[in-house]
Every structure is written in C-alpha cells, then in structure tokens.
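Posting for a labmate who doesn't have an account.
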Amino acid sequence: MLGLSNTIITSVVLSSGENFGTNHSLSFDGSNDEVDFTSAPFQSALADADFKNTGSVSIWARLNTTGSNCQLWDFTIDTNNRINIQYKHNVAHKYVFTYKGGGGVKTAESSTLTHENDGNFHHMVCTWDNGDANEMKIYIDGALVRTTGLGTVELAGDFDDEAGSEGVEVIGGTSFNGNADLNGYLDDFAVYSDVLSASEIETLYNSGVSDQGRYGSVGTIMAHWTFNEGSGSTVTDRITGFEGTLGSSAAAPTFSTTNAGG
C-alpha cells in the first residue's frame, strides 16, 4: 500500500496548473476523445498498492444523447485483464462495471436508467476486493445498486508491466480498443487504493453535488483529477501530481465550465 495518511493528503495540492478560480469538467464529443493517464509514476503507484486486487474509483458523468456505448474509465493491462465501467446504450441503458482476468469475467450492472440527456451529473463509484470479501460493487448517486462475487477471477500481470503489443493503458472517455467513445462530460476522477465504505461514498456524493474538498477525507486516496486547468493538453492530479494527457487534435476533449459542483 502507499501508506499515505488522509491528514497529509488533504493538505497537499501539487497541481500548479490547476485553475482554482473556475471549476471545470472535460467534455467529450463521442468521437475518439480520450485522456491517457498511463504515466510511469502512476502505473508504479498502482502496482505498489496492489490496485488490481483492491481499490475504488469515483467519477461524475453527465451523458448527452448517444447512439453507442460510452466508456467512463478503463484500467487495462491487456484486453484480457482489465477493470472498467461503461454506459451501455445498446444494452438496456445501464452502467456495467467489469472485472476481467485469467480467462474469466465478472460484472456488476445497474438497472435500466434514464440518464441520457437528463442535464444532470451522476456519481459512479466502483469498488473491488479480490481478497477476503471477494466481491465487486457499483454505487450510483450514493446508493449501492449491485454486488457481485469475484469467484476465481484474477488479473494477470500488473499496471507497471512493460507494455507489449497491446500495452498497458489507463484511459478515460474511450475504451482500450476505441469502440466506446463517450458523448458527455466527466468530472472529479478519484482513485483509491482501498475499498470505500457506503458512508464514505455517501460523503462523496454529497446529495448530488461534488465537493472537491471531500475527496481526501475518505479512504486512502492515490489521485484526484479535478480537470480544473481550463486549458492546455495535460491534467494533473491534486494529490501526488500524476499527469494525464489529452488526446491529440480531434481526439482531445475540451474543458467546460459545465461541472459536477453545481
């Protein structure tokens, strides 16, 4: 584990490029936009924390009307070993959290939802514990909607492995193979090395408004991208300074003042 205390994390803000005067999100146009978080320091931190076996990811998303599936985030060692969440437009309009490894796959799915073009940001938290609890959970807007046992599914390799022909990727807005491009907004992408509790997730949900000051007060936080830079081609997490790189040219999402902070 990283061994970072919540007290220290809450007081440290290293993102010198962040514009604290204006709250932003990232807007994705549904065609190849992505953010690549695959930096060597972040990958090493994920490996050191045993993230493939225990972790939590929190993100806010607002969907536009879309004609296809939409990826929110994707932690991928290779196509057969990955942890991700998609909004499945083509399968009953629901979110599907997937834990895939060792030739097996488990999912935790929401019920049918009406989030497309409802004008609201929604909060998604995915947790997994491939240890004593042996389960994965998905929470939407502060409420637990599904728990699935992981059985014998285990991820092979790790996030700091040498990238081969398939590579190691940690991306938001599109999938590893590029066939689930998000049409909408993402905000406050936070990564934890432990399993957040229901009460901690309720704290982050904050009755439907993202409060960026709350993220370091729960769990063992590794990174929190607020996307508040407002311009440029990189985003920097406010905890440890891990960088994400926006896609180039037409594949770059844009900064928007439409955000989950209300």
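Reply:
Got it, the structure tokens are right above this. The longest strand covers residues 54-63.
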